[in-house]
């Protein structure tokens, strides 16, 4: 048994040949914006302004986006060199060895599944509080929240997970058509919020821009850095783009365009949206589940309140879809390699999708969405993301040293400075996460080691090779 045994790129590409290549740059940007502009923009700016940074939350988003852009280039280089399913898991298995690849995959399972569940609870908050209430419908308390919040099950969150699963079962061509349409709608509504909201900005709400109550840590920047670490949840969508490399036409060119295009559009929207939101409403009032819609209520624009709700629902829907795709492809990759039951690694002949992996993802995500509140879910997502970011950034150095892996596509500039900078920033943000998050993820990783040594290593196809 050699737990550091490395997988070959050729074996992955051969196994993934059954997946259909249908995605182009515009589809990847649609998927990326679909994931990045979701619960992140409609909920996180308000929550982080209220709890960590005040109006300076805009700076937190800028910092998170800059680091995400650096890490995105590392992902793009890996995708160009090895266009396979599984993203960081597959990349890690090739350059670091199976045990590291497994831990990255295990961390990303937490990221993807909980991200979809968190998005679903965010969707339910907007749908129940702003749409159903507008037509005089109020769900019973038992159906609005799980047991941790005094209910039985968040039925709206469960239903939206099931609807998205049904769409994804029909193949990537169908899902990207739905996603591209929804992205256009939500981006238009976000722009409308910014254009209308800027006329209601009060300069007093920006004073103080970075409230003293949040000053802590290095040079008093602890609040902004903690907010930046937390809002990484908003930028994890580009990892899903790398996970779709095996289904991308000419990934050497299209993946980097998709990733950088996604980050560029997202940073402009997040920073502008956050700045306008905190200008309309004092940051102390923004710790609510639907801050954008709340802001429209404060300035008595009920019509725009409903439009924001529609935009939020479209935004969260597309974010869920992208993360659902990424998570199911990761489960497929782990099943393909024998680290999870091999049935997870099968592909539907009719639609060319890993239907059993989608089914498992649906069950897990629906259970979490129905029973666990958004705050508990969101707090766990970022640590797994940042662990993968660090390994993939530093992994570029190991990738360049591999003479057996040819890359005629994108390569990260300013090597090795940028890979080291991206990895170091990712590690810094891990230490800036709340302590409870760090402890919870450590427990999850220990569980991952247990699963690997009791099941994975005994069924691994790589370990069975001579």
UniProtKB/TrEMBL annotation:
Pfam families per UniProt: AA_permease_2
Q: Where are the transmembrane segments?
A: 28-44, 56-76, 88-109, 151-169, 181-201, 221-243, 255-281, 307-332, 353-374, 380-400, 412-433, 439-457
Q: Keyword Transport on this protein? A: yes
UniProtKB keywords: Membrane, Transmembrane, Transmembrane helix, Transport
Stated membrane topology is: Multi-pass membrane protein
Q: Which domain of life is it from?
A: Bacteria
Where would you say this protein principally sits, based on its record? membrane
| UniProt keyword Transmembrane helix, yes or no | yes
Q: From the Swiss-Prot or TrEMBL record, state where the protein is found.
A: Membrane
Name of the protein in question = Amino acid permease
> Which source organism does the UniProt entry give?
Fructobacillus parabroussonetiae
Source species taxonomy? Bacteria, Bacillati, Bacillota, Bacilli, Lactobacillales
């Amino acid at each position: 048994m050699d737990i550091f045994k490395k997988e070959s790129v050729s074996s992955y590409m051969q196994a993934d040949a059954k997946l259909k290549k249908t995605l182009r740059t515009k589809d990847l940007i649609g998927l990326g914006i679909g994931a990045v502009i979701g619960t992140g923009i409609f909920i996180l700016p308000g929550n982080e302004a209220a709890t960590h940074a005040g109006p300076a939350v805009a700076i937190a988003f800028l910092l998170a986006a800059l680091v995400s852009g650096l890490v995105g280039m590392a992902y793009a280089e890996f995708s160009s060199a090895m266009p396979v399913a599984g993203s960081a898991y597959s990349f890690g298995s090739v350059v670091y060895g199976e045990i590291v690849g497994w831990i990255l995959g295990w961390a990303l399972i937490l990221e993807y599944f909980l991200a979809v569940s968190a998005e679903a609870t965010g969707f339910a908050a907007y749908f129940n509080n702003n749409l159903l209430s507008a037509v005089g419908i109020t769900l019973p308390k038992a159906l609005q929240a799980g047991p941790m919040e005094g209910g039985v099950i968040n039925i709206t969150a469960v239903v939206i997970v099931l609807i998205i699963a049904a769409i994804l079962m029909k193949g990537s061509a169908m899902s990207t058509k739905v996603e591209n349409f929804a992205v256009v709608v939500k981006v238009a509504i976000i722009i409308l919020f910014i254009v209308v909201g800027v006329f209601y900005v009060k300069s007093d709400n920006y004073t103080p821009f970075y409230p003293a109550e949040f000053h802590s840590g290095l040079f008093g920047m602890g609040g902004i850095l903690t907010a930046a670490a937390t809002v990484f949840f908003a930028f994890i969508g580009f990892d899903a783009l790398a996970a779709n490399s095996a289904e991308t036409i000419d990934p050497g060119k299209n993946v980097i365009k998709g990733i950088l295009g996604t980050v560029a559009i997202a940073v402009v929207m997040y920073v502008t949206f956050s700045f306008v939101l905190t200008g309309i409403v004092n940051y102390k009032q923004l710790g609510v589940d639907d801050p954008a819609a709340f802001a429209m209520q404060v300035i008595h624009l009920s019509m725009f309140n409903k439009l924001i709700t529609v935009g939020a629902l479209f935004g969260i829907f597309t974010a869920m879809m992208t993360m659902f795709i990424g998570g199911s492809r990761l489960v497929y990759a782990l099943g393909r390699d024998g680290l999870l039951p091999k049935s997870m690694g099968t592909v539907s002949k009719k639609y060319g999708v890993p239907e059993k992996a989608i089914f498992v993802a649906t069950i897990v995500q629906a259970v979490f969405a129905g029973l666990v509140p958004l705050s508990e879910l969101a707090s766990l997502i970022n640590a797994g993301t940042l662990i993968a970011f660090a390994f993939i950034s530093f992994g570029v150095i190991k990738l360049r040293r591999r003479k057996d892996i040819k890359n005629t596509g994108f390569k990260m500039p300013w090597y090795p400075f940028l890979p080291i900078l991206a990895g170091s920033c990712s590690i810094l943000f891990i230490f800036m996460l709340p302590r409870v998050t760090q402890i919870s993820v450590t427990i999850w990783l220990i569980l991952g080691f247990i699963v690997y040594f009791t099941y994975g290593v005994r069924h691994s196809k790589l370990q069975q090779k001579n």
